[in-house]
Amino acid sequence: MNRTAIQGTGLEKRYGKRQVLRGMDIAIPEGAITAILGPNVDLPADSWRSAFLAA
């Protein structure tokens, strides 16, 4: 049985006035490694910013 180690509902993130995350729901089971990827607005168009969560 997988238990949820990290759970979030309606997550939001801003960098100054720029909203980069809006209304994200996530549930990460124990033992999972999860990456959240998105464009990095400060770098060229083919650059991405990432966040890794280990539960």
From TrEMBL:
Matches recorded under InterPro entries: P-loop_NTPase
Gene3D superfamilies per UniProt: P-loop containing nucleotide triphosphate hydrolases
Protein name per the record: ABC transporter ATP-binding protein
Naturally occurring in which organism (per UniProt): Cohnella lubricantis
